[in-house]
Amino acid sequence: MAGLLVAGATSDAGKSVVTTGLCRAFARRGVRVAPYKAQNMSNNSMVCHGPDGRPAEIGRAQWVQALAAGVRPEPAMNPVLLKPGSDRRSHVVLLGYPAGEVTAGDFATGRRHLAEAAHAAFDGLAARHDLVVAEGAGSPAEINLRSSDYVNMGLARHASLPAVVVGDIDRGGVFAALYGTVGLLEAADQALVAGFVVNRFRGEPSLLRPGLKSLERLTGRRVYGVLPWAPGLWLDSEDALDLAGRRSAGDRARRVVVVRFPRISNFTDVDALGLEPDLDVVFAADPRDLADADLLVLPGTRATLADLGWLRARGLDRAVADHVRRGKPLLGICGGYQLLGHRVTDPHGVEGAAGSDVAGLGLLDVRTEFAAEKTLRLPTGRALGARASGYEIHHGRVTIGRSAPEFLGGVRAGNVFGTLWHGALEGDELRSAFLAETLGLAPSGVSFAAARQRRIDLIADLVERHLDLDALLALAREGAPPGLPVLAPGGGA
Fold this sequence. Notes:
The structure is a single chain. By secondary structure, the chain is of the alpha/beta class. The protein is built from 14 helices and 27 strands. A 7-stranded mixed β-sheet has the order 15-13-16-18-27-26-25. A 6-stranded parallel β-sheet has the order 2-9-1-10-11-12, with helices on both faces. The protein has a 4-stranded mixed β-sheet with strand order 3-6-7-8. The longest helix has 19 residues, at 448-466. Pfam families: CbiA, GATase_3. Keywords: Cobalamin biosynthesis, Glutamine amidotransferase.
């Protein structure tokens, strides 16, 4: 089977970007390529269709990578999705559907069935495509977790995949990180690591070359290229590592403030707002930062009850109420919508203690009760006179009061809007209608779908220009070269 593992010297090294760029670049060459990530740990997810046609859930990054590859997103591309609900507990999505929970104590043991399902999904993709580009998770050198790893070198061993390690030079220490990643691996794993990609370089290339040559000499492995730092580059992200710096566009006419919940999910819902020329989108967790918001957004959350408590503890509930009293618009999405209602109850302990019953913010005439069964939908409809579509991922069952006017599967009360639909603002027609209704803005003509495709093409252009794509394609087809040297202190079991 032909394939390539894109591993990272660290988290957020650029694995998703490199994988996306390779998928688009290989597809341009007529290769039937599929993306894959054995396990994601992320609250940013997307709904696609499973093999039986039912809506299913996968990580957002793999959904975008499928777009880059020109193939239909499917659960096999991200067979295991862990959605953190706390620091020690995650909800498990297996092949697109809920499959219980995993705790921190289960991390190193008790996940064999997940590994088997993930590897079977990879084998199925490989049988149906010319090549699979697999994205690793974190670093392959997490030696405390190697015995149970099925995402990085565990996957590489299963499928005899050659691996390239991506290092982020912008954060410093990239040579030590790349050398050390290989050196900490056991000998059989090292034999599959074929080389490196340096990411986010800015500066004079001639100053970098001596370091690259030394790295190649010391490791016996080649550097497949250096990707430059590209301003404004973004993709639908899978985690919130860089959330504080996302999509602030400077001094703009209107300010959109998104409350940054501790367990924020699907924050990509506001990506489309960040492309609007008359908006500045920022994330905030301090009540003072809400004071000058023209539009306030309460996004999705994986822990609605806990984040409602956090909101009150920080005084953000009063800031939200003040915003509404001033007549300014407020949008709640999924969990953010549910906590705007009168009450949120959890009789079955879906989020925490069974029997929880908490007062909401009381800004919408709705009540939410969590159910054990998750809702996954791809709805379409109309709102504010515009066509609309989105996707639903939630356990909460919302009961709407008789007098509440509907809005995108939710309700509206004056300038307070609530919806269960993620992704609705990506629709240009609906987004224009919403901004006209709430902020009086004229349509900008921005196409979000076109902007996303341009960003994917930009990444692919960078990959084609700065990486040895022929060598990477040959590596994926032929496997790691034989006789790669073992670096100390590797070689142990």
